[in-house]
Prior knowledge:
The chain has helices at residues 2-7, 13-36, 43-66, 76-91, 104-121, 125-149, 169-178, 211-219; strands spanning 95-97, 100-102, 153-162, 182-190, 197-206, 224-230. It is an alpha+beta fold. It folds into two domains: 2-149, no CATH class; 153-230, ACT domain (Alpha-Beta Plaits), CATH 3.30.70.260. It has a four-stranded antiparallel β-sheet, covered by helices on one side. The protein is elongated. 26% of the residues are buried. The model has no long low-confidence stretch (mean pLDDT 83).
Amino acid sequence: MLESILEQTHIDFPSIAVRLILSVILGCLIGWERESRRQPAGLRTHILICLGSTLLMIVSIYIPQTFQSFQNGDPGRIAAQVVSGIGFLGGGAIFKLGANIRGLTTAATIWAVAAVGLAIGAGAYLGAILATFLILFVLIIMNKVENKFFPALSLKILQLNFSSSKIETDMVFSILEKYGIIVQSVNIAQSLNKKSTKMRFFIHVPNKLDLKKLYKELHGVNNISQIVLGQDFK
């Protein structure tokens, strides 16, 4: 019986139930991964997106099959609106934290899980299941590969206050390079009386940076009186 339901193209209650239940299961699998990483769009969000897009796809097919006056209707029209409209929801998962952008992967996942839902609604079960496992592969396995070969960096602002106009820039850059810190830009400002100097760096910092050791080495540079590291320092 289940095999016949999976193979049929006509929309009736058993096929609708199977498609909606499958969309909840696959949406849950992807949402669970996002929820485990404490992302803004987590378990329930992904389930609802997958479920909603599945239902819309079912409606797209159901209307021309059921109503004679809509025989020439395009079943892909609603699906096209889902593809474009889901971008607004994905945009809500992207936010700026200081100088860093967060939520891009979650936004892409929202778009992908909507596609999974559309595939289920159209009866492409195997494609939807395979896509789900490929999405999980990218989110879990490729995340580890990415972190190994391309360690995550966050953009921060480092300010060094010197109590003199004499600054040892070579030593400062050497220390930053030692800790894997990439300098994007640097600004140097000197007081009118030339008794103090400020160096402000926009830097990419490794997530596993040992701040205590970094501060200790920077404090060892001559004439440094203060070190400030933050994302929104002004």
